[in-house]
Design a protein that fits this description.
Number of strands: 0
Largest sheet: none
Low-confidence stretches: none
Helix content: over 70%
Number of helices: 7
Distance between the termini: 49 Å
Shape: globular
Structural class: mainly alpha
Radius of gyration: 15 Å
């Protein structure tokens, strides 16, 4: 019985993370193709997630990467004051810290981590 409850909790958490990752990607201006590259799954997997036919499994690499993507959104949103225009501008503009636009940087695992750290540092109180 405890295993069934744990399985249900993981499924619920997976559904919540899937919805959050899809929403974060949308608000960051990412296409399904860019989201797929960012979290390391196929584009068809993302399409199935968007259609509610699949979800991220907690504890997998794609779920961990999706969690980082949600952190990128939350941190950036806090910095730009909930402005879609400024959020998209930041994602699309060349950034010297990454030597490319953040939109491109996050599509590599090490780049996604760098962007999270960069935004965490920008939000830190001095």
């Amino acid at each position: 019985m405890a295993e069934a409850a744990l399985s249900a909790d993981r499924a619920t958490a997976g559904a919540v993370l899937t919805k959050a990752a899809l929403r974060a990607a949308q608000l960051l201006g990412l296409t399904h193709a860019a989201l797929a590259r960012t979290v390391g799954v196929s584009e068809s997997h993302i399409s199935r997630m968007a259609a509610g036919q699949r979800q991220l499994e907690i504890g997998t690499k794609p779920a961990e990467l999706a969690t980082l993507l949600v952190r990128v959104y939350r941190s950036l949103d806090a910095l730009v004051g909930n402005s879609d225009r400024h959020r998209h501008l930041w994602m699309d503009s060349y950034n010297q810290a990454f030597n490319e636009a953040p939109r491109d940087t996050i599509q590599k695992v090490e780049g996604l981590v760098r962007v999270v750290r960069y935004l965490d540092g920008a939000r830190a109180v001095i």
